[in-house]
Amino acid sequence: MIIDMGTRDEVRVLVLAGGLSYERDVSLRSGRRVLDALRSTGLTAEMHDADVSLLPALQADPPDAVVIALHGATGEDGSLRGVLDLCGVPYVGADARAARLAWDKPSAKSMLREAGLPTPDWVALPHDRFSELGAVAVLDRIVERLGLPLMVKPAQGGSGLGAAVVRDAADLPAAMVGCFAYDSTALVEQYVTGTNVTVSIVDTGNGPETLPIVEIVPRDGVYDYAARYTAGLTTWHVPARLSPEVAQRVSETALTAYKALGLRDLSRIDVIVTDDGEPHVLGCNVSPGLTETSLLPLAVQAAGADLGTVLSALVARAVARREI
């Protein structure tokens, strides 16, 4: 992995973490790790919450670049990135348009399909339509159309919050209720069995590169919030236990998804690999977790790189965009 550090003299970085989403605690953990990693390379970095004091702080003393360690809507739906654009403050990661597209899972899946990439069949169901059309009739039709098992998850959201695997039609109503607690629209898709992997992609100045594939083996079979952030509930294999041919196919698929969605700097593409070696894209994350149990740092380490060095190079790219 070749890292172009670019210019970094006297660069001051602001790490945004916290926010008001359900993923606030995870974001704060990511932010602290990013802060330590950047400081380890000699950069001046500080952390700030995404609250009412942010804009005055940006106006009074604008940083050279921002690293977004916010998860959930604030960090991933493009809105904050649009505000940073208005303020003329460069940031690491996808621009506002790409983030907005990637954040909405049904829209992202449509784009992936247009790019010729396989992704599980799905239906997006707003809560209002669910009620108006009759819950029982709608759910019966979903099962008839998509079959079982099913994966139910918020159309907009992350960290496995509100997600559930439904193997029995009788459990589908409860899964929908749990999902609607986190979002007004549920994404119901076919549950594809296989090997759960994720591909981190970074572009430090030499074009986007895929990092070693991480295989995810949750103890209870479902990679939900607890499995993601509780030590001992998930085992990871880096690199993933795939044949060289399948691993190459997965990396190429992830890179195609990254480009199709117009992503930038860093992202994580989640994929399920069927028993016959076919990758199906599940989704992408424009603000990957950077905690002690997160997957992008595992991939960086497996690539023989240092997280702080990678982040520093991404900061340099962000600064350079402002100077163009």
Automatic annotation (TrEMBL):
Q: Which reaction does it catalyse?
A: 2 D-alanine + ATP = D-alanyl-D-alanine + ADP + phosphate + H(+)
This entry's comment on the bound cofactor is:
Binds 2 magnesium or manganese ions per subunit.
Alphabetical keyword list? ATP-binding, Cell shape, Cell wall biogenesis/degradation, Cytoplasm, Ligase, Magnesium, Manganese, Metal-binding, Nucleotide-binding, Peptidoglycan synthesis
Q: Give the pathway.
A: Cell wall biogenesis; peptidoglycan biosynthesis
User: Which cofactors does this protein require?
Assistant: Mg(2+); Mn(2+)
Positions contributing to Mg(2+) 2 binding: 285
GO MF term list: ATP binding; D-alanine-D-alanine ligase activity; metal ion binding
Give the primary localization class. Answer: cytoplasm
Q: Which GO terms describe its biological process?
A: cell wall organization; peptidoglycan biosynthetic process; regulation of cell shape
Q: Which GO terms describe its cellular component?
A: cytoplasm
Task: Report the domain of life of the source organism.
Answer: Bacteria
UniProt domain ATP-grasp: residue ranges: 109-316
Q: Pfam families, per this entry?
A: Dala_Dala_lig_C, Dala_Dala_lig_N
Binding positions (Mg(2+) 1):
270
* Cell compartment(s), UniProt: Cytoplasm
Question: Can you tell me which residues form the catalytic site?
Answer: 23, 159, 294
Q: What is its EC number?
A: 6.3.2.4
- What does this protein's UniProt record list under function? Cell wall formation.
- What is the name of the protein in this document? D-alanine--D-alanine ligase
